[in-house]
Amino acid sequence: MTTSTPSATPTRSTGPAAALRRARHQSAGDLAFAAFVGIALTAVVFATLYPIWFVAIASVSAPDLVQSGQVLLFPRGVNSFGYEQIFADARIWQGYRNTLTYAVVGTAINMLVTIPAAYALSRREFRARRVLIFFFAFTMFFNGGLIPNYLLYRDLGLLNSMWVFVLPTALNVYNLIIARAFFEHSLPEELHEAAFIDGASYFQVFTRMVLPLSKLILSVILLYYLVAHWNDFFTGLVFIRDADLQPLQVVLRDILLSNNVFAGGAGGAGGTGGGYGQQFADQIKYGVIIVSTLPVVLLYPFLQKYFEKGVLIGSVKG
Amino acid sequence: MTAVLQDDDRTTTATGGEPAPPSRPRPPGARLKRHLGRQWQLWALMAPAIAFTLVFAYVPMYGLQLAFRRFDFEAGLAGGEWVGLFYFEQFFSSPQFWPLLRNTAVISVSTLVGGFIAPIVLALLINQVVGRRRKRFTQTATYLPHFISVVVVVGMLQVFLSPSDGLITQLLERVGVTGVNFLGDPSSFVPVYVISEVWQHCGWNSIIYLAALASVDTQLYEAARIDGANRWQIIRNVDLPALVPTMVVLFILNMGGVLATGFEKIFLMQNTLNLPVSEVIATYVYKIGIVGNQFSYATAIGLFNTVVNFAFLLVANSVAKRVSSTSLW
């Protein structure tokens, strides 16, 4: 009968739907169900992507058409006024530069701290392993809170300096756990045995064998840290006074939420009734959303598998 | 037996995690010396992580004593005069206490419920998609908002919900609903917050459930099919049970955040109109401590919050351990 068919075809698509399709007799109920799934997921995808699409088309459309609800699916009255204003706005580029600096320096420190530690924690013969895992994991559930952190940074001279963006967040325990799970479950143990017989040290094994074999997890952790730095708003808000040091997200908040849209300070702030200034302010806001999110959204489809891998590796209970 | 299984340090050491070249003659004690040498290297690899964690996680914990001391500018983290529970009593008896507690609990429990159920439903739906490409596309699309910054998400909320010319406000006006102000009306703060949280993170949080569903044995589906189960019954009796262990672990972790609302998003969504429902412990600590410089009082409020969260985590974990034998540790 059908005893060997399911397991003999591991390359075929799996999941209940595929299994049912192979059964080949779909009842009316099944078809209705499939239709329901299709409609529901289409609605979900639409609801997810449409707001982003709308912001994109509104950023290049005539503000009066957007404001009167005539721009819904495609741009109308295409113009680049908003983007011209944005490109002329020094605040945004200063924020961009700062964020890039913090992200690059910060991620470099993150990797140097996280990856060697994750490797050491993955070694089962490491006697302090359990104690150290507790030492790190405890900080995920219990912490000193905002004020002790603030005072510590003050005493260390980190307040209002770029180092507050990169040093306190040097180690993220979730990323440490993900990397450790990868090293523990994905590297063959024979590798170590062979290397140790040849008299290699842990340092040599780590730099010459483990790292080259771990490009996947290195990419995953790198991306997680990069995105976290890119989106960091809290640090700038709480610990930075100097406008020249503010990252992109704080600049964005000024433009998007505090309505300081025009670089010169004039403009939208008073125009709650939707006057001329407010219309163009809105167009600039749409453009700012696009300009600040574009790097992530453009890179994302290519990097998505790495992001996803991180969750899957991390979910292995270890 | 279980003790041996748990102590995997010892088992692997015995089974050759520490291999010695058999042929070379060595002086006595060399093995120990080499072993210590090796372990020293692991400590060296750990050193930066330990140092950063000590300084930036454990020193602030030491600073929690500020909650029991009158803050002294010179002493800093070491604190000043001991005042015991003075600041806690001040907080519990302040008129802010109950509104803050209620707002924090309402926002985080609503988010917890919505943010817990939505990814499960989405994963079950995506799992029903037949074509691999369509599945991939759906996943890619729904993960995307997770990477948008909080500032931009709140900025989008503002432009979409603006009472004068927001897209959603306009669409509602066309169907005859006028005069809504989602951003200012206190009763719409929590729904807007939760829906936008779900919009942003639902897809991403479904990944882990999809992985659990992918590991369900296909034969189970075919057996259920032969037994005459329809697709709805298969979801209920095959798919859902497969998700339970993941659900339990995530639920425990979420319980640890029962009073931990995201500071950033609430802070950014706050305005004078919605403040009666949007002021939560985290934003209050910021305003009292950083803006208002009442360091000891703010530390006490923050500590209260952390302790409540930690207690919920421990309770949830022990209940889960007893009920379903799944737990964090």
Account of the 3D structure:
The complex is a heterodimer of chains A (about 325) and B (about 325). Chain A is mainly alpha-helical and about 325 residues long. Chain A starts with a helix and ends with a helix. In chain A, about 70% of the residues lie in helices and about 0% in strands. Chain A folds into two domains: about 25-85, no CATH class; about 90-260, MetI-like fold (Orthogonal Bundle), CATH 1.10.3720.10. Chain B is mainly alpha-helical and about 325 residues long. Helices cover about 70% and strands about 0% of the residues of chain B. Chain B contains 15 helices and no strands. In chain B, about 35% of the residues are buried. The chains are: A mainly alpha (about 325), B mainly alpha (about 325).
Tally of separate helices of chain B:
15
CATH class of the largest domain in chain A: Mainly Alpha
Derived from helix and strand composition plus strand pairing, the structural class of chain A reads mainly alpha
Q: Uncertain regions of chain B: pLDDT < 50 for 5+ in a row? A: 1-21
The general outline of chain B is globular
Number of domains of chain B: 2
Taking the sheet with the most strands of chain B, its summary is:
none
Poorly predicted spans of chain A: 1-12, 265-275
Topology record:
The complex is a heterodimer of chains A (about 325) and B (about 325).
Chain A: H1 5-8, H2 16-23, H3 28-58, H4 63-67, H5 81-87, H6 90-122, H7 129-141, H8 146-156, H9 163-166, H10 173-186, H11 189-197, H12 202-213, H13 215-231, H14 234-239, H15 248-256, H16 276-314
Helix pairs in contact in A: 5-16, 6-10, 6-13, 6-15, 10-13, 10-16, 13-16, 15-16
Chain B: H1 2-6, H2 8-17, H3 30-62, H4 86-92, H5 97-126, H6 132-143, H7 150-161, H8 167-174, H9 186-214, H10 218-226, H11 231-255, H12 263-269, H13 275-278, H14 281-291, H15 295-324
Helix pairs in contact in B: 4-15, 5-9, 5-11, 6-9, 9-11, 11-15, 14-15
